[in-house]
Amino acid sequence: MNAATASRRHRPSTVRGALDLSVTLVTDAGLCGLRGVTAVVSEAVDGGVRVVQLRDKAAGHDDLLRQLEALATAIDGRAALLVNDRVEVAAAARERGLPVHGVHLGQGDTAASVARELLGDDAVIGLTANSREHLAALRRMPRRDVDYLGVGVIRPTSTKPDHPPALGIEGFARFAAEAELPCVAIGGITMADAAALRDAGAAGVAVVSAICAAPSPRDAAAEFATAWGAR
């Protein structure tokens, strides 16, 4: 497939204004095991995952690009595709015409303002935040720079051993009430937490091991989607 064909086939769609954050899958190659990340993501999107965030701290630039191309094919427009941290990879993927919708940034990563300039106004930019200091910094930033916040951890989790103190659902609720952006809860979340977090003001939940390590990623994703939508 030549570059022109790839650009027509994989041109990023504009999802920034209508992003469904309800169930986000953050990938973990180790937890996906022999099945591989692409197979797990395909099943999870079948089950109801609406945002896929490719996170692979060990992968190089070219490897991440190959992973994004495989994920874009597997997702086939059914979910938004984000890159964790690596703004330059997201920019390169978008230049190739791959449907990569944006990035999720940590506090120590590329500044959101830089990411916005590199990726453009239609890109989705998420930012990890979990303290009053983070909220104060956000209020000093242009509103255009960040679209949503990843807030956690809710409970201690082995997938992020250096995580800050757990917020719990009540702590999340207090944070979300002060935030001026949609907040996605992350960190140690189980299906039993989904409805409570929604009621606490979450725009969605982000999960890693509960889907990546599940015997059936499709079933696990479907259960999260059902739990999120239950009234």
UniProtKB/TrEMBL annotation:
Cofactor(s) of this protein: Mg(2+)
InterPro entries named in the record: Aldolase_TIM, ThiamineP_synth_sf, ThiamineP_synth_TenI, TMP_synthase
Chain positions recorded as Mg(2+) binding sites: D85, D109
EC code(s) of this entry: 2.5.1.3
Keyword Transport applies: no
Pathway: Cofactor biosynthesis; thiamine diphosphate biosynthesis; thiamine phosphate from 4-amino-2-methyl-5-diphosphomethylpyrimidine and 4-methyl-5-(2-phosphoethyl)-thiazole: step 1/1
Family matches, as Gene3D superfamilies: Aldolase class I
Similarity field: Belongs to the thiamine-phosphate synthase family.
Protein name, as recorded: Thiamine-phosphate synthase
Organism of this sequence: Agromyces salentinus
